[in-house]
C-alpha cells in the first residue's frame, strides 16, 4: 500500500494506483471534481497516467461555475 495525503489527511491506496483510480474509488464522477497533486493541476485526460507516489498531496475539489 502507498500512503498519500488526501485533502490533508493520510489515505492509503494500492501500490501503482492512478489518480483516475482514486477518483473512481472515492465514488466521484470524473467530470464532477477537479484534481491537483503536489500543488499542480492534473487535467482529467491525464489522471489515468498519473501514478500516485508516497506522500503525494492530493486535492479534490468541485469546480466553481457560474457568473
List the helices and strands and how they pair.
Blueprint: E1 2-6, E2 9-13, H1 19-25, E3 34-37, E4 40-42, E5 57-61
Parallel strand pairs: 1-5
Antiparallel strand pairs: 1-2, 3-4, 3-5
Question: What does this molecule look like?
Answer:
This protein is mainly β. It has a single domain (about 1-60), classed as Ubiquitin-like (UB roll) (Roll). It is built from one helix and five strands. It has a five-stranded mixed sheet with strand order 2-1-5-3-4, with helices on one face. The radius of gyration is 11 Å and the shape is globular. About 10% of the residues are buried. The model has no long low-confidence stretch (mean pLDDT about 95).
Could you write a compact summary of the structure shown?
With 67 residues, the protein is mainly beta. It has one helix spanning 19-25; strands at 2-6, 9-13, 34-37, 40-42, 57-61. Helices cover 10% and strands 33% of the residues.
